[in-house]
Amino acid sequence: MKQSAGDNSENIHSGRDTSITNITNVINEVIDYDKLTTSVVEIVIDAFPVLRDVAFATGRIFMEDTAKFLIDEIKKLQEDVGHLKSKLSEPDIQFSINELLYISAKKGQKIDRDVLVSLIVKKLESGVSDEQDFLLDEAISISSKLTRQQIEFLGFIFYVKNITCNYTTNSLFGNCLEIINPANMNLKENHDSFILKNSFVKKSDVYEAYMKIYTSDLELLFEDIKLVSEINLNYLSLKNCIGNLMFGSQGIEYIVSKRTGSKEEDFSKKFKFLQMKLKKYGTENSSNINLTEIGNLIAVAYLNGKGMNIPIMN
Q1: pLDDT band of 8, cuts 50, 70, 90
Q2: How many Cβ atoms sit within 10 Å of the Cβ of residue 114?
């Protein structure tokens, strides 16, 4: 049984055998690193004429570190060199990179660099439609205006509400993955099994898998977040990361209890770490927290930075 957040997407291969060195040459050819970083530094100086030398030097360190990280992530793409050269030459991409370096110099560790880089790199991939490209632009713009904790919160909500178990079934067309979500009222069941399209699975196996997702796996992902304070949901709604707070849906207590075969009244006892996070975020009533498409993009980029492998877009 595997965790999933939807159908897996595959990288598009171009049938080439291009080395990392060739990709690096393309990046260096299209992006004049020294000119770009110098121009960003000049922007910072113009914007902050009384910037102290120490602060300026620190900003440049953050910016150069971000530039190096971006280039390293681009090198990992399995894309044709010609495609990368074309994409990197687009004013749209150049602008996004310039804004990334500028915000890195300005905000430093206050922003989540990994999320911004992940979203920019996604724009370089083949198969990204115009609509998806605009969504990525919006997610990049909004991410730069969110604190690390706000982005962590989006990742936390996505994980708890959207990560589901997949079960491999056999059919006439071969093996296929089916999502098993006991919180879905349309899921058919027998007295001790859930009924799938081509098979069935024991309820106890499903409950055990989800129990792991909401206890040990959850703690492993989020235990390093030491400073947690109440989240301003209105701000996230204003930034189009979560939907209208007036509309409700299934709350986290309901979802987790259904997926693990537990009783809602036992939630705080069985899921102490999860309950503690909700309380510190000030979101114990979670029925009105629903991520938007932009919120999902930012959340997935964050979770992938934590080691998960969820397609940013299907």
Answers
A1: very low
A2: 17
